[in-house]
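Box 3.1 — From sequence to structure: Putative membrane protein
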Amino acid sequence: MPPADGLPGHPDYRFTLANERTLLAWLRTGLALVAAGVAVASYVPSLGTSWGGGAAGLALVATGLGAALTGYARWRGNERAIAEDRPLPAARGTVALAGAVALVLLLVGCLLAVEVAAR
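Predicted structure (token representation):
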């Protein structure tokens, strides 16, 4: 709401700071996924098959990159909406990221099943 003197008002800084903290959480999640991907590819190179560790590691790294990019896009859209005093945009990226994590978990689960069955 603009102030009574007619000058454009500033958005409440608490919203901007909360949006920034959310971006940092997305970035931490992305970094953790990348670190997990590097660890899997380095320490479990033959997860179920000769290519299993590399595939799982690459999938985790790609999902981590997706988390970072999704977080940035969400932060940018929210900042724009806050500045223009509009409703926040829909969170479509979170659904896609959750699906990507589920697919990675399915891949790792299948590779682990092959690993255990081979023993």
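Summary of the box: Helices lie at 13-43, 52-83, 92-117.
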